[in-house]
Amino acid sequence: MSQDNAQVLSGLKIIEIGRDVSTAFAARFFAIYGAEVIVVEPPRGHELRMQPPWFDDTSDPEKSLLFAYLGGGKKSVVIDLDNESDVDALQNLILSSDGVLDSHAPGYLTGKGLDLNRLCDLKKDLSVVQITPYGQSGPQAGWKASSITAAASGGQMYLAGDIDKPPLFTVGHQAYYQSGVQGFGALLTGIYCGINTGVGEMFDLSVQEVQAATLEGGGPSAMWYGSEQTRASNNPRALWGVYECLDGWIGVASMPRQTKSVLDAIGHSDLKDDPIFNTGGWNQEADDLLRILVPEFTASRTAEEIFEIAERHRAPFGMIPTPRELIDWPNHQITGFWNEVDHPILGKHLYPAGPIGFDGDRGNFEPAPTIGQHSKEVFNTLTNMEDLRITSFQSEQVSMPLRGIRVIDMTQVWSGPYGCRFLADMGADVIKVEGPTFPDPIRTAGGAGKSPEIDLAPYFNEYNRGKKGLSLDIKKPEGIKVLKELVATADVFVENWSSGVAGRNGLSYGDLKKIKPNLIYVSMPGFGHDGPDSSRVGFGPTIEQMGGLVALQGYEGGPPHKSGISYGDPIAGSTCAASVIASLINRKKTGKGMYCVIPQRDGVTGLVGEYFVGESLGVNLPVRTGTRHLKSAPHNVYETLPDREGRPVMGPSPRTSKPEIVDYAFDRWVAIDCQNDGEWECIVEIIGEDSLKDNKFAKAIDRRKNVEEIDNLIAKWAKTQDAEIISRMFQNAGVCSAPVMSPALLMNDPHMLERDNFITVAHDIAGEHLVSRPSWRPKRRKELPSKSGPCFGADSDEIMSELGYSGKDIQGLYEKGVTSRTLLGGR
After folding, report:
1. What is the pTM of this model?
2. Full domain range(s) for residue 279
3. Does residue 826 surpass a pLDDT of 80?
4. 27, 193, 722, 729: which could join 16 in a potential S-S bond, CB 3.0 to 4.6 Å?
């Protein structure tokens, strides 16, 4: 790490023994940022090599586009887990490493003679992350899963799509990619523990829980009110959706405070002073009008014209580019976003840059290995580790991983607050800073406009739990003085402002590094700080659109479709947490701070990397195919018997600021994925429909040709069955299936309840309420969050007193409006 050209994770050694996208994606981050990553493959090749898409029609494992992307920069060794000497060699390899990424079903590796718990006892600073569909415990821990059933189980699929259509399966392997980002952060946390205390960590990550913790407002509302959130289509609000334009599609995602910019952009500046826009464009009367004005504006212009107009007015419109358009995107050409590698079989193709710039380093890129390419190199240099002595950790006194680390959280809405929540969950002292007249907008998005109502927003409290609250007006000299004094005591500073805001306020990395030379500074602009896109504004949906996902996903034959949540936000948040912990590891070794830049759009692009590998190789991959799959058939979501009792859907009350029941949801759905002919025979037997026994369905290639007929037959049967019963029957037969869970359904899911996924925290006003359990479950450090989100400015006095301010000083700051425990100027 002392070399000038060393990367942030240089010197680390990671063993990837997992078999799915989640562990492969987590390991890829380690590889591009400098760690030595060794991927362990069975003799026939990694499981991902067997999944579509491929370069051609041969299904050659060396021509897998998915593995070409996820295997980049790794070393490959072949291990046969049925061979005792190979298992011994793998144990030695693991004992020579810093961390392990595993995705095997609970108990599988132990049955093969590889006990990861024992290895962690043998090498006490070793860390392991196990990412599985349903976690290491609970009644569904042994269930099979695929990308569609994993998406179904976590709640996000239920929220995606149109209310009059089935839930929408988003593109590729999103449930696993999300879990991979979190697995990267979790393993970094364990490695930091090993370096910092000599005692590593084992983390249990459930793909279901990763999604259930990121349901935006739907999850918190279900936990506070027991309410449901339903699919809201491509346009839940006039200023939050996808619109048709002259040459395709354009997106918009505007918070209420951006409404006037949108009115300027669409040529209706005259309406800015209209009383219906006093509270922005989210109230019903304003929304009704904008649903007429916005499509009128977009329908008469090209996407590029709208994009240019939006830039002039700083209105949050976003393009919806295809993979080819993103490869040719001017901003990416200027900033060098694309990296060319030369694969020994596939030839030259492109990789997107890493989602984090560590002091400007966006990653080092090498092609994926061939099967077993590095076996001799790795095992010929491996030292026998059998002389290590087993140490039991039952009596070890280990504190939370980030205990003693102070984080200043300047972020708002979801991405940054979510990122900093991971740090709080792991024990950091996180201080949430808000302005006395400008709180985090998510406090007021539901209609609350004053204290104490702004303290009771479920969304805010879920993603800011465990933090302290400080109110400071940084536009005033006294406020910026307090903040900079606080920076001198901090380890980490995080902001998600638009590019340029930090510098204009004297809070750039250069400014704060003078105060705290080893400060870790994380900046989360939507589109980076370089290139022509950097001046643009955008929230999660815009990030998702501009990042390339929306162009790829949608119902078969339909328009591009956004996800059911502001998808860019939790991806950026998870990445933020990982960047901090990677920087702490680096600081531990070098004593130096770090400037981390996370262009949020770029992180989303990395979630569909196989499409860019394919595009750069000239492979034309299908897009907007709904639930259709290149290999599996059937592969779909089917409506089942509805719930007997409706799930209450809440909406704003016209009389009070509190939500009230406006509807009930009864719909239920189930996902089924048939991956081979043997599973098809099981499906036919379970359903018992003679028509399904026709020979034209017997082989996968024929099922794909006749999948619409198969879907109709299964759909007819499924409507007479219970979703949970269907999944249990199919799982017992070895077929991938899962009920499509919703925010409200997850609250009563026996598996989630068995795993204590919902925990109680204390709120200063509301008392006790439920939050989602941290999705990183450590084995050795089991302390759970106990506090809800902070009330507005609740800890201001304590924090300023700690900085040396007297009671009189603090009272003076209150009188000048520099700080406050109530919202000043509230409506």
Report:
1. 0.96
2. 240-323
3. no
4. 27
